[in-house]
Amino acid sequence: MLDWAYLPCSLSFLFSSIRIMSMTQRGLVLSATAVAVTAVAITGVGLHSSQGQAFFQESPKELIDEVWQLIDRNYVDATFNEVDWRSVRQQYLGRAYSDREEAYDAIRDMLALLEDPYTRFMDPQEFRNMQIDTSGELTGVGIQLAQDEETNELIVVAPIEDTPAFQAGVLAGDIIVKIDGQTTEGMDTNAAVNLIRGPVGTSVTLTVRRGDEELEFPLQRALIEIHPVRYSVQTEPDGTKVGYIRLTQFSANAADEMKAAIGDLESQGVTGYILDLRINPGGLLYSSIDIARMWYDDGLIVSTVDRQGIAEQESANGTALTDKPLVVIVDGGSASASEILSGALQDNDRAILVGSRTFGKGLVQSVRGLGDGSGLAVTVAKYLTPSGRDINHQGIDPDVVVELTEEQMEELFGASNKIGTPEDLQYVRAMDVLSEGITQK
Length: 441
Fold this sequence. Notes:
Elements: E1 3-6, E2 11-13, E3 29-31, H1 49-58, H2 60-74, H3 85-93, H4 100-112, E4 120-122, H5 124-133, E5 137-140, E6 143-147, E7 154-159, H6 164-168, E8 175-179, E9 182-183, H7 189-196, E10 203-210, E11 213-220, E12 222-225, E13 229-235, E14 241-247, H8 254-267, E15 273-276, E16 282-284, H9 285-293, E17 300-306, E18 311-315, E19 326-330, H10 337-347, E20 352-355, E21 363-369, E22 375-384, E23 400-401, H11 406-413, H12 425-440
Parallel strand pairs: 14-15, 15-19, 19-20, 20-23
Antiparallel strand pairs: 1-21, 2-6, 3-16, 4-22, 5-12, 6-7, 7-8, 8-9, 8-10, 10-11, 13-14, 17-18, 17-22, 21-22
Helix pairs in contact: 1-2, 2-3, 2-4, 8-9, 9-10
């Protein structure tokens, strides 16, 4: 059986990836990506597909009971959101199922009783898509998608930089109302992912609502290679050198790329750092832990708490690469693993946070392969910052607030890409704060 765990933030990469984490602390994943998104750590292998198909044909009820058992043993809320879970088992195992789709629909209906958008079932194709997408090469248009928990509207959390959606001008906060002319009303993120994905070179048109107007974006699907770290040396008018690092997601290679970036910047004699976590939806927890350890030597990083109230903790381990002043830029698109890292740096007085309140996603999912090749994501825990803050729905407030208007965000994150330039107000303020810190030190 595959066994992963992740912390989605109710977002989904529209190339349908799911960042996942195993039940071990090393495999945990934090992501602002709900239903169809994030990164993976595989801890076991399930039945081969041929075996799984035979298994399913013999008894579809076995699959339904397998899902029920996983929820019963692992779900974060021991009351199952006030649902009589044992009665549910009797109800769904008492039915007859004529084909696999009927059983899959029953599983989805059963899970819907929990009223938890992050506990979800993936059919074999959806599960395979997720596994492919976590390889680092993705096909799609390059946006992260969330489903509003109240309105169920599909909201763009952020476009991925240098992708078709980013270049076309799709913005964070856009509401997708149609995909190739098909309304998204009543559509979940997984269904949207399936419609937006497709072969490289083919086209898809997204219709979005932005404020009071509707906009159409004809997009050509592309192969998207994810390099999560970009960096440069910024020289101030007085000759001071500052290292600027932009981290776009906490993928499996993020920590290695971050280590290389810090090492190179140190060799160039920078006197301080700006770490830009804006529109970073999260990813692997171990990646955020490894990166946190690069910035400070001693102190707690994160705690995860399951339904028994048992907390597991990760701490710094004396392996910091620099102690120079650090400013972190965050916004409403900074989620899960981004909130773990920024919260840890803030709580340990290692960095000053500049920007706007983060997304606010603090739930952990375990993602497991099932007997017939399908998969299940189960909410199993929540995470806390070092000071004990539960940031779910609350987010993390920056030390220095710099809000942007919709027009400013469009100019900053749109096709013109003004991120990290003198026209980027949050970046400019972060530089001012860093300069003050460098002077004080």
